[in-house]
Design brief:
Elements (H helix, E strand, L loop, with lengths): L23 E2 L3 E2 L20 H10 L1 H20 L5 E9 L6 H7 L1 H5 L2 H13 L4 H8 L5 H4 L5 H7 L2 E5 L5 E8 L2 H58 L10 H33 L5 H32 L9 H30 L4 H66 L5 E2 L15 H26 L6 H8 L3 E6 L5 H5 L4 H4 L4 H20 L4 E6 L6 H14 L4 E5 L19 H5 L5 H6 L4 H4 E3 L5 E4 L15 H13 L2 E5 L8 H6 L4 E7 L5 H13 L4 E9 L32 H11 L4
Parallel strand pairs: 7-14, 8-12, 8-13, 9-11, 9-12, 13-14
Antiparallel strand pairs: 1-2, 3-5, 3-6, 4-5, 10-11
Length: about 775
């Protein structure tokens, strides 16, 4: 046949990645031989989602997207159609802050002096913001003309104006576009007009109040300056009455006297020099005995000058002491100064008495008489000049205070004049200012609604509805960590991939054949997939030894192991191998109805209907009597029989082991449809009796961790695993075939019908498959 020999003993242990494999993929593609050394198990690749996974999930769950999007689309469309029409009244206004001269504003207005350019910039935005304020809206709705139309609303200011008014500045200009939305176009127009009129009136009132307040404050400042001026004048008059040294215009009388006396003294000193020169010249030409007398007169003059200086000194001290002491006449120092002053005056008088006779004797020389007289006058002037200087120094502080007060009064007078001029200019400028808010005289009533745009609303509803459907599908895909890609299965389990079976389309012909693809649709993609599984088993057998007895199992029930065992057995039989298919699942037998036991007219054979594996293991009949011949050449079948009342432990008996040994001598391939792995010990016991096992995995049914647990259970029981078969693959199927998908059922050859069982109706077949749980 193909070199397959009966199983003589336990085969060599397979590596975690069973060596092997020159597996043939669906569509005739051959897989790359798997490495002989174990492959490290990586992370769960099924948990790594790429955009391709989400696209495939959307294709897979189109029904869910439509189920979510269709009702939502209908609801949103109805809501869009039922939306009321909204009209929009428009107006363009101009907001210009009042502009006053900066100097006037700073000098006159207390508020303007505190404002700056930033405040001017915020004037227009702050005023425009009132359009959306509740206070202005309440003033509008309180209007007697609009009150009847708004009486039925609970909060008309909020419902009609605040929520619906919009303001947008036109570039960086002073113009603003104001809009108001409403359901009634006429009412909306009147509300917008009333709103803008109220804004204009409010702005005008604030501007007038500000101007009036500014002028009032300026007049208060002017009155204060005038009051200050009067106080200064009264203080100056009082000083003039008290001090006798201040003349008209604040001039100092003593200072003028000092200047005049100084000029007179200078003239007298000049004449004295001239007379002295003349007298000196006369002495050279006419010397007389009077020279001695002249020298005495000269000494007497010097003494007189010193006495006069001492006199002035004592007078100055007495005057200074008089300003300090309270009882001047009884003060000892004052008496001492007065006594010394009397002595000086007495000596001066004696000297003057001595000079009179001498002057009479010298009267014969007029130059000398003039010289003496000039000297006496100069001495008197010096004494007076010194006295004036002392008086000037005493009166200087009061004089300076008077001058400062007079200067302050002049500045106050200048301020008063300037402020009066500024107030007059400010009043003229305020009257010439334009209104802060310009409002159009008429607003056009809207005729065309601005919304709803039902087309866009319906389109947005459709977009949101389908978006929610996609979001739901993507969320389910994100939470779904089941294995869908064959490479993820082989990588996650570190087992060779023996084949990939596509999702079987349930046609009437396949239903009648009980999912027997190789007979019902021999040219289909699924039939080629089972042929590739057989080819992969041949490759594994070349490396690890012959595989005669093969257990087909899965992690959980419903993964398609019965369909895989059935079609694999049919494939081996069509390839010329003597094949036996056994249903050893005592919990959920499913293949008995695929190959019904048809009785002949013989009564003995009629009594043997329904016999199977259970009866053989009980020892009731030999295995040859439980054998069913199928219409497919080289394929025999042993059903489970009636498992009721039979313990599951019968599968671990010596009788089953002996039966398998006998069957492997009569058949080239013995395929067992076993139970699921997880949660049950049946498969672990059966796996130790066969050459190898085949693990069937349904794509998208289990995460990698479930499959790894099933593999671990088989490894713990020393069950050899030839490889894994991915069943019911939907995603990326075109990458596993060279000729695309299977042809439609109508194009299948008619010869397949001859291989189908002929004694069953279509309805019976569907009921059998539904009850037996045969999976595609």
């Amino acid at each position: 046949m193909d070199g397959i020999r009966p199983h003589r003993g336990p085969s060599a242990a397979l590596s975690p990645v069973s060596q092997g494999a020159g597996a043939m993929l669906p569509g005739g593609l051959s897989a790359t031989p798997l490495p002989a050394h174990p492959v490290a198990v990586g992370p769960d690749l099924a948990a790594v989602k790429t955009p391709a996974h989400y696209v495939a999930a959307a294709r897979r769950r189109v029904w869910l997207i439509l189920a979510v999007a269709a009702p939502l689309s209908i609801v949103t469309s109805i809501m869009a159609l039922r939306q009321p029409k909204i009209y929009q009244a428009k107006a363009e206004i101009k907001v210009e802050p009042p502009h006053y001269d900066q100097a006037l504003s700073t000098l006159v207005s207390h508020s303007a002096s505190q404002e700056n350019a930033r405040a001017q910039e915020k004037y227009a935005p702050n005023l425009v913001a009132r359009l959306q304020s509740r206070g202005l809206a309440e003033m509008v709705v309180a209007n007697a003309r609009l009150a009847p139309e708004l009486s039925q609303l609970d909060d008309p200011a909020m419902e009609l104006i605040v929520k619906n008014v919009g303001v947008r500045q036109v570039g960086k200009t002073e113009w603003y576009n104001v809009t108001l939305n409403g359901r009634d176009p006429a009412l909306t127009k009147r509300l917008l007009e009333a709103l803008l009129d109220e804004l204009r009136n409010t702005a005008n009132k604030e501007s007038r109040d500000k101007v009036d307040g500014t002028i009032e404050y300026a007049r208060q400042n002017l009155d204060q300056l005038k009051k200050e001026q009067r106080q200064q004048s009264e203080t100056m008059f009082a000083m003039l009455r008290t001090l006798g040294s201040i003349g008209p215009g604040g001039r100092s009388i003593l200072e003028e006297q000092y200047v005049n006396l100084g000029q007179s003294l200078s003239q007298k000193q000049s004449r004295l020099v001239e007379l002295s020169q003349k007298l000196m010249i006369a002495q050279y030409f006419d010397r007389s005995p009077l020279d001695g007398l002249q020298s005495q007169d000269h000494r007497r003059d010097e003494r007189m000058a010193s006495l006069l200086a001492e006199k002035r000194q004592w007078i100055k001290r007495l005057e200074a002491l008089k300003g300090k002491v309270r009882n001047f006449n009884s003060d000892p120092a004052a008496r001492e100064f007065a006594s010394r002053l009397d002595d000086v005056m007495a000596e001066i008088e004696s000297l003057n008495a001595l000079r009179q006779p001498e002057k009479l004797a010298m009267a014969a020389d007029p130059n000398e008489m003039l010289l003496e007289q000039q000297r006496a006058e100069i001495d008197d002037d010096k004494a007076q000049l010194q006295d004036l200087l002392g008086r000037i120094q005493q009166a200087m502080p009061e004089q300076q205070k008077f001058l400062e007060l007079m200067q302050d009064r002049q500045q106050t007078s200048a301020k008063i004049a300037k402020m009066e001029q500024d107030i007059a200019s400010f009043e003229i400028l305020a009257r010439s200012q334009n209104e802060p808010v310009w409002v159009p005289a008429n607003i056009v009533e809207p005729t065309v609604p601005i919304k709803p745009n039902r087309v866009i609303s319906i389109a947005m509803g459709l977009f949101v509805s389908f978006g929610l459907g996609f979001v739901l599908v993507f969320a389910l895909e994100h939470l779904d960590h089941s294995v869908r890609v064959p490479e993820h299965v082989s990588h996650g389990l570190a087992l060779p991939l023996l084949g990939v079976v596509p999702r079987i389309v349930r046609t009437a012909r396949i239903h009648r054949g009980g999912h027997l693809l190789t007979s019902a649709a021999p040219d289909s993609l699924a039939a080629d997939a089972f042929r590739n599984i057989r080819a992969s088993l041949l490759g594994v057998a070349d490396q690890v030894g012959p595989i005669v007895s093969l257990l087909v199992t899965s992690a959980k029930a419903g993964d398609g192991k019965s369909t895989t065992a059935l079609n694999l057995a049919a494939t081996c039989a069509r390839a010329g191998e003597r094949t036996l298919l056994m249903d050893v699942d005592l919990r959920r037998p499913s293949l008995g109805d695929v190959f019904p036991d048809e009785a002949d007219d013989d009564e003995d054979e009629a009594d043997e209907l329904g016999l199977g594996l259970v009866d053989v293991l009980k020892g009731t009949i030999p295995w040859q009597r439980a054998l069913r011949r199928t219409e497919l050449h080289n394929l025999d079948f042993i059903a489970t029989g009636d498992p009721s009342g039979v313990p599951i432990e019968i599968l671990g008996t010596l009788e089953l082991r002996q039966l398998l040994a006998a069957l492997t001598h009569h058949y080239d391939r013995v395929i067992l449809d076993g139970p699921a792995v997880l949660g049950m010990a049946d498969c672990r016991v059966l796996g130790r009796m066969v050459d190898s096992s085949l693990l069937v995995v349904r794509a998208g049914a289990h995460p990698t961790v479930t499959l790894q647990r099933a593999k671990a259970v088989l490894r713990q029981s020393r069950v050899e695993i030839a490889g894994v078969v991915v069943n019911s693959l939907r995603e990326g199927l075109k990458n596993w075939s060279s000729y695309g998908y299977a042809p439609p059922a109508a194009a299948l050859p008619a010869r397949a019908d001859r291989a189908l069982p002929s004694a069953r109706s279509e309805r019976q077949t569907e009921e059998t498959l539904a009850g037996a749980g045969v999976e595609g």
